Amino acid sequence: MRFLTTFQLYDFLDTLVSLVTAFVLGALIGAERQYRQRTAGLRTNVLVAVGAAAFVDLAMHIAGADGAVRVIAYVVSGIGFLGAGVIMKQGLDVRGLNTAATLWASAAVGSCAGADMVAQAAALTVFVLAGNTLLRPLVNAINRIPLDAQSSEATYEFKLAVTPEALPAMRDRLVEQLEKANYPVADVEVVEHGDDLLEIVARLVSTAIHPAELEAVVADLERQPGVRHATWEVSTKD
Known about the structure:
With 238 residues, the protein is an alpha+beta fold. The chain has two domains: 2-134, no CATH class; 154-236, Alpha-Beta Plaits, CATH 3.30.70. 60% of the residues lie in helices and 17% in strands. It has eight helices and six strands; from the N terminus they run H-H-H-E-E-H-H-H-E-H-E-E-H-E. It has helices at residues 2-6, 9-35, 42-84, 97-114, 118-133, 136-143, 167-180, 211-222; strands at residues 88-90, 93-95, 154-162, 185-192, 198-204, 227-236. The strands form two sheets. It has a four-stranded antiparallel β-sheet with strand order 4-5-3-6, covered by helices on one side. A two-stranded antiparallel ribbon has the order 1-2. A hairpin with a 5-residue loop joins strand 4 and strand 5. The longest helix is centred in the N-terminal third of the chain and has 43 residues, at 42-84. The protein is elongated, with a radius of gyration of 25 Å. The N and C termini lie far apart (64 Å).
């Protein structure tokens, strides 16, 4: 049995340190993602980090540093396919990019751990956590800054399908609810869709959108009599 002749205690302990490091650091990154209820949470980030560490450590023991470099290159490209699985496109809205980037960073943490660069792996973990937590208030503050219409790259429209009888009241309520949610309306137009259905289209003043806030407006309006459907969409400039 080759295991009895090839087993080296110090090599095994080295591998164990790499895997434990990847597990702990991956768990720290994943815990933050799990807390925010992201698609890729605690277990996914841990498995990505530990898997990357295992492959790099295996290459280090078999082919040395040159082998580890080749494996790391494959890890980088392979995680790209995994990250693509958490990116969702709903109309023109794309979600999951930050989660995919976090998985990519978890793989980098695991690769550092597998290459016995424990300090570097810990430092990278700190930066990943800082990017996902400390920058959040700054992102929210920037998103709330109104943009000049000519410099904005996105146009947001809120659409409300109503019966002719409900048109006046729902047009006023739509503008009221949007402005109550701090989304000023730039202009409103009415589009006819047959004799018994009209569509109110409200174009919002250029600003960043928080989907949950607009979904709350959707829920409120869809409960009103005479409303057939409510939705919002974003379009971007070329």
